[in-house]
Amino acid sequence: METLSATTIFWLLVLGATTGWIIGYWVGHEGVTLVSNIIWGIAGAVSVGILGLYLQLSGVLLFAMMGALATLFLANVFHLHHVEDTKGDIDRGMRIKRKR
After folding, report:
1. Strands (E), the chain
2. What is the domain count for the chain?
3. Residues 6 or more apart from 24 whose CB is under 8 A from it?
4. What pLDDT digit, counting tens, does each position of 71-91 carry?
């Protein structure tokens, strides 16, 4: 069984940062920024990893990676920086004729 030590925390941080970095480059400009992806990845990996250690589950790093992926999914899907939010309604090619 793993214990909460400095080595475990280090690997949880590395796993979360690496997962956030990979997902950040994968989604590009469609999701949150690269730095935000790294921070969300670290937060998800550390929180789920410590929860897995507390519940004495085996394979804590696997659960931490799944937690980081789940957190990154939520952060990238429900972010508030869609084109519609920043620039108004998207021009869909429809023109409305106005009377003068």
Report:
1. none
2. 1
3. 31, 32, 33, 34, 36, 37, 38
4. 999 998 887 655 555 555 555
Digit-coded pLDDT (tens) for 32-71: 888 999 999 999 999 999 999 999 988 899 999 999 999 9
Cβ contacts of 55 within 8 Å, gap of 6 or more:
none
- Give the pLDDT confidence score for residue 3 in this predicted structure: 83
For residue 87, is it within any domain?
A: no
Q: Are 3 and 16 in contact (CB under 8 A)?
A: no
Nearby residues of 46 by Cβ (< 8 Å), 6 or more positions away = 9, 12, 13, 16, 64
* Alpha-carbon gap, residue 24 to 22, rounded angstroms: 5
